[in-house]
Design brief:
Radius of gyration: 22 Å
Number of helices: 4
Helix content: over 70%
Distance between the termini: 21 Å
Length: about 140
Amino acid sequence: MSILGTVANLILPGVFKEVDKAIPDQDLKAKLKASIQAAVLSADVAALEAQAGVVRAEAKGESWLQRNWRPITMMVFVAVVFNNYLLAPYLQAMFSWSARLDTPPDLWELIKLGLGGYVVGRSAEKCVAAWKGGWS
């Protein structure tokens, strides 16, 4: 979930409660709530579309490094995780030595961010296509 979606989930219940208090007409309340939700979803989709656009632009870049720096970085992260949690424990058990790499907490945050970028980017492409094609 994007930051905008998280903030919206925190704020919208309070906004809807105020709408319920301020507007007596049930139809108008429902329309206003639907309009607010549609605006939040539209903004969220626009943000996801922009993020996906950045990834697409990098993937179509002229430089080999520009096109491949994210996959290379993620493969390094995968190698660190593989080493620390699969290879090193077996080496320690079988040969009494280990080549464990220190994994600072910030690295885990970077891994989550990198993986999230790929997942969100791909999901955004699918959601935007579905939204523009069938939900608009």
